[in-house]
Design brief:
CATH class of the largest domain: Alpha Beta
Structural class: alpha+beta
Oligomer: single chain
CATH superfamily of the largest domain: Histidine kinase-like ATPase, C-terminal domain
Strand order of the largest sheet: 2-4-5-7-6
CATH topology of the largest domain: Heat Shock Protein 90
Low-confidence stretches: 255-259, 307-321
Strand content: 5-15%
Shape: extended
Helix content: 40-55%
Mean pLDDT: 77
Number of strands: 8
Length: 321
């Protein structure tokens, strides 16, 4: 999950800069000596001067690069601190809730209706913890490249409908809160990768939608051999200056201590990494009518016949209209 190569490049750059600085110092001393012994216009003098100037330019470039890497490291540390705050909050809240419910059940005699009420909320807390752990594990598994045996042909229509419906049920959205328009298409990738991509994007849409969510999933083949899927919500939208930053690791807009929505800042990072891995693209667009956000995902695929798409699982095709 963390970039294990992040320290190797700054350390290497620092060693190179030290070596160049030592060589530049030695060359400067030699140049001073030869300036005293020989005439300033000799070939050796100009050779040392040229080499020294080149080394000085390399040192200046190295200082600029080191400064850029330092700023990047500071921003990463800040995002990691945000991530730790988010994980701490996501762990403490359901655990404290579960502890309170269990203590109440242990100390008081409750009616069956009250017990069912407590069990329902306890199950929600367990699902919240399970979702958090799966999110972190998914991010940790991103470094493992898929093998050929794990890649398969997946009919996107049935897959997307099932994924969208499961996310809707988890957020307890009404049937009217989700609309799906999908043209038959086939993609070749790992099923688990495709699941993480669309589940995270649709989950994000429900999470940041308005009080009455209106989510729309539209998927269609394009002329360039890509399958274009748009996930639209009716939330407040994402400002233009943050539309690239939201795909970075640990990035969440706003302060973690003042945030109302749960999350770790890993969902869209997972989406971006997996989409790029299968040679696709993902970007954020404005809502087409009124406020909202549109996530456009383009992945390689091919259109299929309607009869082929509907023959896989007729019940899934009718699950979401």
């Amino acid at each position: 999950m963390f970039d294990r190569r992040s320290l190797s490049w700054p350390i290497t750059l620092g060693v190179i800069m030290i070596v160049l600085l030592v060589a530049l110092t030695v060359g400067w001393v030699l140049l001073t000596v030869f300036e005293v012994i020989e005439k300033p216009g000799s070939a050796l003098y100009w050779t040392l001067l040229t080499v020294g100037t080149t080394f000085l330019i390399f040192v200046l470039v190295g200082v600029i690069m080191y400064l850029a890497l330092s700023v990047k490291a500071i921003n990463l540390n800040r995002r990691q601190a945000n991530f730790m705050d988010a994980v701490t909050h996501e762990l403490k809240s359901p655990i404290a809730s579960l502890k309170l419910y269990l203590q109440t059940l242990n100390r008081r005699a409750l009616s069956r209706e009250e017990q069912e009420h407590f069990f329902r909320f306890m199950l929600e807390d367990v699902e919240r913890l399970d979702h958090l752990i799966n999110h972190i594990l998914d991010a940790a598994r991103l470094e493992r490249k898929p093998t050929e045996g794990e890649v398969e042909d997946i009919e996107l229509a049935a897959f997307l409908r099932q994924c969208a419906e499961e996310v809707r049920l988890r957020h307890r959205g009404t049937e009217d809160s989700l609309t799906v328009h999908i043209e038959p298409a086939m993609v070749r990738t790992r099923r688990v990768d495709l699941d993480m991509i669309f589940r995270n994007v649709i989950d994000n849409a429900f999470k940041y939608a308005a009080a009455e969510p209106k989510i729309e999933v539209v998927s269609r083949p394009s002329q360039d051999g890509m399958i274009v899927t748009e996930v639209k919500d009716n939330g407040p939208g994402i400002p233009f200056r943050f539309r690239q930053k939201v795909f970075r690791q640990f990035v969440r807009l706003g302060s973690e201590l003042e945030r109302e929505k749960p999350g770790t800042g890993l969902g869209l990072y997972i989406v971006y990494t997996l989409v790029r891995r299968i040679r696709g693209k993902v970007r954020v667009l404005d809502g087409q009518s009124g406020p909202g956000t549109v996530f456009e995902i383009r992945i390689p695929g091919r259109p299929t016949e309607t009869s082929e798409a509907t023959s896989d699982d007729p019940e899934q095709q009718e699950a979401v209209s």
